[in-house]
Design a protein that fits this description.
Blueprint lengths: L9 H6 L18 H4 L8 H28 L3 H4 L14 H9 L2 H32 L5 H10 L9 H10 L6 H5 L6 H11 L4 H9 L4 H12 L1 H17 L2 H6 L8 H10 L6 H36 L1
Helix pairs in contact: 3-16, 5-16, 6-10, 6-13, 6-15, 10-13, 11-12, 13-16, 15-16
Subcellular location: Cell membrane
Pfam families: BPD_transp_1
GO biological process, one term: transmembrane transport
């Protein structure tokens, strides 16, 4: 007696059990590739490719001039003018840096830039911290009106106040002095606004607890607010530092002697020494001016981005 396997019923076919023919519900949707079903990588969309091309183009726009600056600073004079362009120097012309340093009093320029940048940044951030704390935590009559005026000043070009500041500095006898270079620029509405926006995110419970413990405003600012706002303070400090280092117009107006001028103004001396543009020393001098701020940015970029993103997430 032989046994035969029972024929699958309609219900077995519909459930898709092994050994049965799959129904329309069991078949995979049409239009999907076998690579996609197997878990393979997705093909890049045209929009993704276009975005990548745009990012690469933007990177080239910013990176190529910087590379050309550094390569030209190390090229002999005749290679800078050759066409087609040479992207790598045939030999390293370190004498361009020596000529740039000796053609003008770059030692005095560097000293003045360091003094004005460090002192000006410290004073500007200090004033911004105090004013931001006052607007965020202290109540006084007319606070919002004063705040609106300060923020509204950001809409005006900074050159509007050049004449007034120059007349004030001249009447005080501060021309060709460090105080004339530093003090007119310590009131920054931009740094104050950045720090104010961050201080608004500080939980009021922390400042209230410090007040219950007997802490005054200054102690609350130092022990509670500043540690929480440290990433944004670092971000504002770097922005102000770069602006102070690269400032050209104000030092040019209030200084008339070489011993009080800063590095950006010193580059003009390299173009006027021989009556023609010797681009090798000019490029080398530009590298001397730009290299410190590039180094500061690359060393602190992680903290800067972290401070900006932290403020964005909290906001």
């Amino acid at each position: 007696m032989t046994l035969t396997a029972p024929k699958p019923t309609a219900s077995a076919k519909s459930t898709g059990t092994p050994g049965t023919e799959p129904t329309a519900d069991d078949r995979p949707p049409r239009g999907r590739s076998s690579r996609r079903r197997a878990g393979g990588p997705r093909r890049p969309l045209p929009a993704t490719i276009a975005l990548q091309v745009l990012v690469a183009f933007t990177f080239a726009v910013f990176a190529v001039p910087i590379y050309w600056l550094f390569s030209s600073a190390l090229k002999p004079e005749n290679e800078i003018y050759t066409f087609p362009l040479t992207w790598l120097p045939s030999e390293l012309a370190w004498e361009n840096f020596a000529e740039a340093w000796t053609s003008a009093p770059f030692g005095a320029f560097l000293k003045n830039s360091i003094i004005t940048t460090v002192a000006g940044t410290a004073l500007e951030i200090g004033v911004a911290l105090l004013s931001a704390y006052a607007f965020a935590f202290v109540y006084f009559r007319g606070k919002m009106l004063v705040f609106a005026v300060m923020v509204g000043s950001l809409m005006l070009p900074g050159h509007i106040t050049l004449l007034v500041n120059y007349i004030t500095v001249s009447n005080l006898g501060w021309l060709n002095t460090y105080q004339g270079l530093i003090l007119p620029g310590i009131g920054s509405a931009f740094a104050m606004f950045l720090l104010y926006q961050q201080m608004r995110q500080v939980p009021s419970e922390l400042t209230d607890a410090a007040m219950v413990d007997g802490a005054g405003h200054f102690r609350r600012m130092v022990t509670v607010v500043i540690p929480i706002c440290r990433p944004m303070i670092l971000t504002a400090t770097l922005i102000v530092l770069i602006a102070k280092w690269n400032d050209f117009v104000w030092p040019l107006i209030v200084t008339s002697t070489a011993d009080m001028r800063t590095l950006p103004i010193g580059l003009m001396f390299l173009r006027s020494q021989e009556g023609y543009d010797s681009w090798g020393p000019v490029m080398a001098g530009t590298v001397i001016v730009a290299l410190p701020m590039l180094a500061v940015f690359f060393l602190a970029q992680r903290r800067i981005i972290g401070g900006l993103t932290a403020g964005a997430l909290k906001g």
